[in-house]
Every structure is written in C-alpha cells, then in structure tokens.
Amino acid sequence: MPDYVISTPPVVGIPVTGGAEVFPVRRVYCIGRNYAAHTIEMGGNPDREPPFFFQKNPDNLDASGEFPYPAHSSDVHHEVELAIALKAGGTAIAVDQALAHVFGYAVAIDMTRRDLQAEAKKMSRPWETSKAFEHSAPVGPIHPAAKVGHPDRGLIALKVNGAPRQEGDLNQMIWKVPEMISFLSEYFELAPGDLILSGTPAGVGPVAKGDRLEASIEGLGGIVVAVV
Ligand code: MN
Fold this sequence. Notes:
- With 228 residues, this protein is an alpha+beta fold.
- It contains five helices and 18 strands.
- A hairpin with a 3-residue loop joins strand 17 and strand 18.
C-alpha cells in the first residue's frame, strides 16, 4: 500500500439484509424521468426518448434515517426510487445478460433541491448542487436478488406524515432495469459496487423540517426518514 499523504477516504457501505455484511459503493448513477406520469408533471415528453443519467456521490448515501434540510434551498423535494446494486460490471452489456450483473435492490429517495434544479435547467447548467449534495440519497438495506428475485412490478410509494404523496408501480418504468443497465454500459464502464437509482413515479413534492417520510417498495419493505 502506498504511503498516502493524508488519511484515505472511507469506503461507503450499505447494510445488506439478513446478516452483518455490507455492500461497498463505487458510483451512484440516477436516471431522469423514467415514469411517464412523473415526466408529464415535470413538463416533459413521456414518449420513449433515450434515457438520460446524472450522478450522485457515493457518500451522499445515508442509511441513518435522518435527512438534514440542506442550505441554499427552500424547495427540497422527495423522489422515491428503486435502487439497483451491481455485483459485476462491464461495457456493452446485452439487455438479456443485464440482470446477471445485479446483486440486489433497495428503497432509496433522490432528494432534490428543486429550486436550484429549475435555475440550472433555465441556465443550461449542470445539476450537481440540486442533486449531489450531502445526505441527498436516503437509502434502506440492500435485499439480495438471490432472496427477493428481480422485482419488475409492485407498488412503489412515499408518504409524508402518513399522507400518501407518491404512488406508482415498478411496471410503469419507461426504461426497464435490464435496459437501463445495458444503456449505461454503452456510455460508462460499469463495475461491482455501482448503484443505479431508477427514477421516480408521479407525486413529487416539497418536504419541511419535522416531516416524517415513509418510502416503500413491494417486496423490499420500507424506510422511514425524519427531516431534521
Ligand atoms: Mn430522481
């Protein structure tokens, strides 16, 4: 091991259900507008246009159950999403081979500074300040596909203080999990440890300090996140 000039950054790990093991994260890719009803609510065209991706930082993932309301925004939105954890990578992965690269699945929330994102869109600027900020990806434990299979249908939902806000079905994804992996692998070299957030159904909306978010996906349980 080299003699590093500063201490080495820690590896980000997400708990895996059923034991003490932890999934180490390399990169976090996120797909935009992957459910037709959400695409329409964001003013987009729900036709099957090529998918687009942005990234969050691995250390934006937070399994603590708390979301500190970030500075420099007064319009922070919740987006409940299915997270896909890869155990194998590569380039030009065929759609019919893609699921063999998946280790498991988790419930995640893509927290978004919507006001900063709207400004970035208007100015044709990148999205990092609206998407890739500290604690911006609350996440639950990873359920191994060996135990839960590869969910492609079922309720994906989010409640705020007990009131339903987002409800959709995994089968409403415009680009399905194998297609997303295949498409990403044409542009990036995927690797074990990569995580993909697969887009959010309709009903995104603002959160406030004191709110209690409950995000759930059929077959994967749920997570509770307090906005602090
Ligand atoms: Mn999202």
